[in-house]
Amino acid sequence: MIGLSYYPYWLEGNPDYTLSIADLGQNMKDMAARYGKEVMVVEVGGEDTKVQNTYDMLVAVQKQVKAVPDRKGLGVIYWEPQGARSWSKYGLSAWGADGKPTKALDAFLIK
Q1: Whole-prediction pTM value?
Q2: Residue ranges of domains in the chain
């Protein structure tokens, strides 16, 4: 299996995931075909202050994983979703200031 990280937040110039999501999909398709291995996004995260954007990004990432031919796209793992900024200072979690998961994690309920 090949594991990929995807953090639009860290992209230089413009962290808008819509500008790089197709590249993620192409990379996964290329690696699956080139190496004959399954692929998985093993690290992903979005800004905790932009809940809807993070939700939308997670839905888009899952669609790209599902689009890998021959069922070689295996899944998505959110890195440190419970790392609330209030105690961890990590701004890419999916936890709110109220100590509860944000709507962003609902993206994992979509089938």
Answers
A1: 0.94
A2: 2-109
